[in-house]
Amino acid sequence: MNTVRPLIVQEVCLRDGLQIEPVFVATADKIRLADAFSALGFARIEVSSFVSPKAVPALADAAEVFAGMQRAPGTVYVALVPNLKGAERALAAGAGELNLVMSAGQTHNLANMRMTTDESFEGFARIAALPRGNVLLNGSVATAFGCPFEGAQPVAKVLDLVRRYLDLGCTGITLADTTGMANPRQVAALVEQALPLVGADALTLHFHNTRGLGLANVVAAYDAGAQRFDAALGGLGGCPFAPGASGNICTEDLVAMCEEMGIPTGLDLPALIALSRGLPALVGHETAGQVAKAGRVADLHPAPPGLRAA
Amino acid sequence: MNTVRPLIVQEVCLRDGLQIEPVFVATADKIRLADAFSALGFARIEVSSFVSPKAVPALADAAEVFAGMQRAPGTVYVALVPNLKGAERALAAGAGELNLVMSAGQTHNLANMRMTTDESFEGFARIAALPRGNVLLNGSVATAFGCPFEGAQPVAKVLDLVRRYLDLGCTGITLADTTGMANPRQVAALVEQALPLVGADALTLHFHNTRGLGLANVVAAYDAGAQRFDAALGGLGGCPFAPGASGNICTEDLVAMCEEMGIPTGLDLPALIALSRGLPALVGHETAGQVAKAGRVADLHPAPPGLRAA
């Protein structure tokens, strides 16, 4: 119980947080956020997505953000990439890691990527063959804990997709609960089966808080041996099938939980909260994050005035 | 891992959910909600609070709600009671259980109850001496996981308060995280220490989702052996120190989580969701509950039109 294994938080607000926002956050504001994340010392920052600007207009400035931001030594700057064309653009922009993505659910892959699973992997093979110097390859399995069209995804199928990514030379694997369908028991079971294939230093869990289970799933995954987690400042993001529901798990809520549980993250919680409190001005609405509203557990309140003595 | 121990959900929306609402929900609507909870088969329903109507105007109609609602056999109808006068009113109204409440944090007790801890227990001793037939007594320790004024509360102090309640003849004990300061590690540790004193059939955990950890705390408590949990439809409630933050853990989100984890609750999730979707009309704002917005995990979506074949 009293482990002090660190938990590594990877910031995905700029990509998964902003991609669903109806407003276009100005490129300069994205760059300012990226630089703030770098200054905070995140190990990995997912900067943007090299997809069709028609499909995701919010991230049409991916190359400009990569070009304009500062780079901290030791931080990996990630670009989400669905296909060969996106990979070429990401490499040209100087991404430090290509995050390949396809969905365990065939219907979701067809809907999101306009490709079958096999076609996605044909494209990934071409990407893996590109000269890329020391740029890393991560393979993401979206809808790994359930597909909003098909429902549950068999564990054997998910693990087979993991193996296909590893066979391509991916040095990192992400299991993503894209629409917030995972539960703690399922998470513990899948992490236990994935770790022998992937290793804790290479496995990322990506949870959404769509149904309120995001942090419960983190605890289950961490207790099963996982250590790397995606999260978005303010809990930005969302789900096209759940208007009003939460998006990604919230970076500062996750870091606050870790602090209370005695799990080191290396991140500065007050600085994260301050940064998160600036998000509503950028996106035009309140965010789902709770700690930015409630304050840290350690932020005690003065006793009400006029209390009688005990 | 594959336990099928049931998890007992106790509905507190009418009391802890409504008490902080600025609007007065009409007595007839409260009665309708109470009857709906009875029809759903909750084991315990906290109906109202017999406190000063000046302090909590939202619950000034406590006696009228008790008088107007139907009573299902086997359901315990609970009244929150801070002092002797409240207990007398609750007994006159026909409450099936008096839920005594005081705070582990002395400052919180002085602020909320205008009494010291010892004065609270002097009043409880008088309540315990009242003739009450087969009306049950539950003892609640508020701020058991942290006081917003004082911070952490020593486990020994919390357990001592539990013993004082038991010595008075309480047959149930509630450990309440009144302002959402608990974390899963702390919860597991306190439950493990409380269970030998109280027993799982008599111990209730009462969590707030103020900082997003409500359901993670439920999992930790359940896995440590607890089985009874308070929750409020829609996640109503809130915290005076955290404007905009969530309130009680949400009944339908908790039941949805249990269903996905294979833990029986005996409650009808679609009916709960339908009931919860009527709350915004009563309280005049969106509620914090997630599943009422996102739907159940099992509520799959049709594939988008025009998808090519795989």
UniProtKB/TrEMBL annotation, chains A, B:
GO terms classed as biological process: ketone body biosynthetic process; L-leucine catabolic process
GO terms, molecular function: acyltransferase activity, acyl groups converted into alkyl on transfer; hydroxymethylglutaryl-CoA lyase activity; oxidoreductase activity; zinc ion binding
Keyword terms, alphabetized: Lyase, Metal-binding, Transferase
Domain of life: Bacteria
Domain Pyruvate carboxyltransferase: 7-273
A Pfam family recorded for this sequence: HMGL-like
Matches recorded under InterPro entries: ADH_Zn_CS, AIPM/Hcit_synth_CS, Aldolase_TIM, HMGL, PYR_CT
Family (UniProt): Belongs to the alpha-IPM synthase/homocitrate synthase family.
Protein name (database record): Hydroxymethylglutaryl-CoA lyase
Naturally occurring in which organism (per UniProt): Stenotrophomonas chelatiphaga
